Amino acid sequence: IRCPVKECDEEILHGKYGQHLSSHKEMKERELYSHINKGGRPRQHLLSLTRRAQKHRLRELKRQVKAFAEKEEGGDIKAVCMTLFLLALRAKNEHRQADELEAVMQGRGSGLHPAVCLAIRVNTFLSCSQYHKMYRTVKAVTGRQIFQPLHALRTAEKALLPGYHPFEWKPPLKNVTTNTEVGIIDGLSGLPLSIDDYPVDTIAKRFRYDAALVSALKDMEEEILEGMKAKNLDDYLSGPFTVVVKESCDGMGDVSEKHGSGPAVPEKAVRFSFTVMNIAIACGNESKRIFEEVKPNSELCCKPLCLMLA
């Protein structure tokens, strides 16, 4: 109810109206406006009623909403009521609750996607046990599963590894195995060693080049499609594409133990990787570039081929 006192104009809940009016000392005729309870039971709050009583009290409003929904929204009463509820929450600045309701309405739930949780874990340098501790704490405190459990993160991580996406080369590549399993191997196997080389033992996780390339391109699928859309090349979805790759190898420093009796020769970690520099598409006689790496020297765009301890 809007307060009738001049220069007040405040909106008050029905139950608190009489209390509000009594604060206006200058109001001589305030009994004209105050709510008079004519005996009987006091009017209960809507949310404290049984479902049947709620339906009874709201039947006139429900009829009006139904009529509006059929006329304006194709009979979708649920959408009209949900939107009214959202607007009511946002009008009272209860945006957090409104956001959660909106997420539920859109079928997203209020939890984060496993890939987002994985990105958070990697970018904040959390170990698995640290992340698990945070996951358990948040779940216990809020009573909701906002972060996803570790096994969901591991499943999301697999999609980023070479060998996850099935593919077929046309024409087939010669002398390339079809096996995409990733294993721990001697990182120097297959490389001819000269007499002068220091005898080095290595242990490495090595990916097949073609499997790693397919994984990198699959990871960039959205960027490739956006580039094609920007240049109106939707007709060329089947290519042919030209992919320019820069190969690199960098030492990742001394990874031996820093104190105590470490090995005489410090262990080194080495990473062989490649970066997709640009992707172009041949349309007619000309070649149009649909992707270009903005920061080609950043380690964030390095796709690993072999991670090796020497």
From TrEMBL:
* Subcellular location(s) per record: Nucleus
Annotated RAG1-type domain ranges read 1-28
The family database entries (Pfam families) matched by this protein are listed as:
RAG1, RAG1_DNA-bd, RAG1_pre-RNase_H, RAG1_RNase_H, zf-RAG1
Coarsely, its chief localization is nucleus
Q: Which residues form the NBD domain?
A: 39-106
Q: Report the EC number(s), separated by commas if there are several.
A: 2.3.2.27, 3.1.-.-
**What does the record say about how the cofactor binds?**
Binds 1 divalent metal cation per subunit. Mg(2+) or Mn(2+).
Reactions catalysed according to its record: S-ubiquitinyl-[E2 ubiquitin-conjugating enzyme]-L-cysteine + [acceptor protein]-L-lysine = [E2 ubiquitin-conjugating enzyme]-L-cysteine + N(6)-ubiquitinyl-[acceptor protein]-L-lysine
Keyword annotations of the record? Chromatin regulator, DNA recombination, DNA-binding, Endonuclease, Hydrolase, Metal-binding, Multifunctional enzyme, Nuclease, Nucleus, Transferase, Ubl conjugation pathway, Zinc, Zinc-finger
Q: Which cofactor does it need?
A: Mg(2+); Mn(2+)
Range of residues in the leader sequence: none
Q: How does it assemble?
A: Homodimer.
Which family, according to UniProt?
Belongs to the RAG1 family.
Q: What is this protein called?
A: V(D)J recombination-activating protein 1
